[in-house]
Specification:
globular, single chain, mainly alpha
Length: 168
């Protein structure tokens, strides 16, 4: 069926974007992960944490209507709107992002992409969120947009470019 193959491609694109985001920052040291290279002040590690919060928000809070507790006390200001920075250790942030991906993948494995959300996104485009397929499309866009930021930061940090392209 055409819809099934399109859904499979969408999920594959999301997985590729996630893998590439991790690949772009994989071998940065602690100083590089917490260095801001742009005037807005975000850091590569802060951006990875933000991506984890986005996965949690969209696939748990919006799709399911509730989310598992965070591994640390919640501070809504630190992951909505930026600048995306963090005081947490890199291992904790990467574990958080990977855990949120696993939880999102469990939702995708158990829920048809045509399923309406059980929760609500509380920002301007809330009425556009009609089903899980919209959430997947949004997360492809969100991850790819921030992947571009991470690519630029990596180039400014150490001159390396084109990292993670084998994952696409």
């Amino acid at each position: 069926m055409i819809a099934d193959s399109v859904d499979t491609v969408l999920i594959a694109f999301l997985e590729a974007q996630r893998a590439r985001a991790l690949a772009v920052v994989a071998d940065l040291d602690a100083d590089q992960l917490t260095t801001s290279v742009l005037p807005s002040g975000w850091t590569p590690l802060g951006m990875i944490e933000h991506l984890g919060h986005a996965e949690r928000h969209w696939f748990q809070e919006v799709a399911l209507g509730s989310a598992a507790p965070l591994p640390w006390p919640d501070d809504p200001d630190e992951h909505h709107g930026g600048p995306f920075t963090t005081t947490r250790q890199a291992d904790a942030v990467f574990a958080f992002y990977r855990d949120q991906i696993e939880r999102a993948n469990a939702v995708l494995a158990e829920t048809p992409l045509s399923a309406p959300p059980l929760g609500r996104h509380n920002q301007g485009d809330a009425d556009q969120v009609t089903d899980l397929r919209f959430i997947v499309m949004h997360m492809i866009e969100e991850t790819a947009r921030h992947l571009g930021h991470l690519d630029a930061a990596r180039e400014l940090l150490d001159g390396r470019v084109g990292l993670g392209q084998d994952d696409l």
